[in-house]
Amino acid sequence: LIIKEKKLTAQRAEMEKRFNDTVHPIPAEEKDSFEHELKQVRRQQVDAIHTIGENRQELDMRHNTLKAFEEEHRSEFIKSFNEAKEKLTHQYTASLDYYGYEFNESLFRNSENSAEIQKFKADAGIVGKINLCKYLEYYLRNVVPDSLANVEHKERLLDAKRYCEKINR
Fold first, then answer.
1. Sign (positive/negative) of CA torsion 110, 116, 118, 123?
2. Which residues contact 134 (CB under 8 A, 6 or more apart)?
C-alpha cells in the first residue's frame, strides 16, 4: 500500500508537471481527458494515504491491545514457564541418573572375569564388587593433588562423586 502511494505520488507529480508545462503544452483536444485522468490519480493517491492512516491507527490499537495482554498475563506465563522448566530439569536429571546407573553397571558387569581388573583390585586392596563409585572412591584416595589443578578434570571428578553419593543414599 505504501509502495502504491509512492508510485501514485510520483505519477501525480509527473502529470501535474506535464499539465502545467508551458513550453510543450498538452493539445486542447486532449486537455480535458488528461485533466480527468489527473483527478483520478489524485483521488487514488488520497484514498491510499487515507487507508494507510486507518491501517496505522488499527496497527497502533492492536499493538496496545497486545501490550496490555502481555502485561496482564506476564506473571502467569513466568509461573507456568518456571514450573515447566523445573519439571523438565527434574526429568532430565532423573534420565541422566538412570542412564548413568545403566552405564555404570554395564561398564563393570564383566569386570569380575577380567584378570587385569582382578589384579588391579588386589593391588589396590579393593574389597567387593567393583563399579564406578568404588573405583572413584579408591582413585580419589590415591590421587595426586597436582592432578586436580586442572579445573575441568576436577569438576568431572566432583560430578561423578556427587552422582555416586546420590545413588548410594
1. negative
2. 126, 128
Cβ-defined contacts of 103-111 (< 8 Å, 24+): 104/131, 104/132, 104/133, 105/131, 107/131, 107/132, 108/132, 108/135
All residues at 6 or more sequence positions from 121 whose CB lies less than 8 Å from its CB, including other chains: 130
One-character DSSP codes across 53-67: HHHHHHHHHHHHHHH
- Asked if 13 and 45 touch (Cβ cutoff 8 Å), the reply is no
- 169 or 138, greater pLDDT: 138
pLDDT at res. 134:
76
Residue pLDDT, tens place only, 148-157: 777 887 788 7
**Which conformational region is residue 131 in: left (phi greater than 0), alpha (psi within -120 to 50 degrees), or beta?**
beta
Report the alpha-carbon distance of residue 153 to residue 144 in Å, rounded: 13
